Predict the structure.
Amino acid sequence: MNLDQRLVDAAIDQLDRRWPAAIEAVAAALYLDGGDILTSVGFDNINAAANLCAETGALCQAFTMNQRVTASVCVQRDLSSNTIRVLAPCGICQERLAVWGPMVQVGTPSTSAAGWSMRTLAELHPYYWAATYSDDGHWPAFSDHSD
């Protein structure tokens, strides 16, 4: 499944359910290969070292289910401007998504009317570090991550 407005809306719906009035709250949604959507929210803790990105719960669930992730989007509510923003995945989440390869699509902020655009991980990371350790210079396969 390709990243589309339906996936962005699923992330916004999750944000509205879990964080209806929180300032700068985040939520995420991702597509599985078969079209199912998983959502999750950031895990906030008084000890910031225990916090987790919004994508983490859904990514762990997909991995547990042995399902392929094809697209991911993270959204943030900014109450000061009453807007929803799409956030590009942080470096850690890019590493987590890399398990499913360079063609995973991610939402990125944009000045377009929709406020977001789609990029692949390969576009975000044209010089992915782990390719250095593969035999052919390409991104590691799923089996390389999960063995």
About this structure: The chain has one domain: 5-146. The first helix runs from residue 5 to 18. The chain has five helices and six strands. The mean pLDDT is 90.
